[in-house]
Amino acid sequence: MIVVALVLLAACMLPFVVSNYRTFQFTLALVYAIALLGLNMLTGYNGQISLGHGAFYAIGAYTAAILMDQYGVPYWATIPAAAVVCLIAGFLFGLPALRLEGLYLALATFALAVSLPALLKYHHLEQWTGGVQGIVLLKPDAPFGLPLNPDQWLYFFTLAITVLMFVLAWNILRGRMGHAMVAIRDQHIAAEAMGIHTAMVKSMTFGISAMYTGIAGALGAIAIQFVAPDSFNIFVSIMLLVGVVIGGLASISGAIYGALFIQFVPNIADAISKAAPWAIFGIFLLGFVYVMPMGIAGAVRMAVARLTRKAQNQAAKP
């Protein structure tokens, strides 16, 4: 708890010691952390592989953008709306996906991610989605006369939602639902024998995971101030899966590590080589996977355990 409190304190001080652009980058890192947490609940805790969560990210982003642009809904009210829409969409998609497992489920979700950008460009939907031109949004100002610029206020707004979503995930995963997820992942037949309704749990997990990703998409749209179909191609889904693996499967804290990785490592790679930034990114990716096969969260747990054992051994010496 002390470590969590110190991390939150540092997070609250961050926008006052870095530039507005860095504040914007850290806001996006928080957005990705929410999306990665949702995907980790599905893949890490429940064992369902998804290559299509970029589609739910897009649905959340467009829900927020359409409500703000077409109906004048306040930005903060679009977050629960995106959550509900993506919860329903994820649950409904999870129902037919129950017949699929492993690579077949991955291919089905891959198809969803590939088809959605084309659907967003469909001319009968242009009056809402803006077609290929997308939708331009305005960044909200700080309310109540708070002495914060728009970037700082949006950072704190995103941070508050991130903390709320992490607390909610912690409670879900520590409760009956979380134990059922893990039981299905580890031994499907044994879970059914114990009375777990596997179909309902897997569908609900898909819905909750999509809800998290949709909330992240809505926050991302508000932060970037623009949505367009080409912004949500299959690359988004792949990067989310990369973030989950690098951060650490079945780890709540891994979502934060993975978000920092997918937000800042591509920028570092671009600074190292303008000619071949993705080649440098690939080298970073291979290095992390080789050095930390259990993800960054797993490496941190192992390091803490070693330091604890070392301290105990030293304390036991006469």
Task: Please describe what this structure looks like.
The model has no long low-confidence stretch (mean pLDDT 91). This protein is mainly alpha-helical. Helix 3 packs parallel to helix 5, helix 7 packs across helix 8 and helix 11 packs parallel to helix 14. 74% of the residues lie in helices and 1% in strands. The protein is globular. It has one domain. The chain has a two-stranded antiparallel sheet with strand order 1-2. The two termini are 31 Å apart.
Characterize this entry briefly.
The protein has 14 helices and 2 strands. With 318 residues, it is mainly α. The chain has one domain (2-234).
Mean pLDDT: 91
Helix fraction bin: over 70%
Shape: globular
Number of distinct helices = 14
Instruction: Tell how many strands the DSSP assignment holds.
Output: 2
Q: Uncertain regions: pLDDT < 50 for 5+ in a row? A: none
Q: What characterizes the major β-sheet?
A: 2 strands, antiparallel
Cα end-to-end separation: 31 Å
Order of helices and strands: HHHHHHEHHHHEHHHH
Whole-number total of structural domains: 1
List the strand order in the largest sheet: 1-2
Overall SS class: mainly alpha
Radius of gyration: 20 Å
% residues in beta strands: under 5%
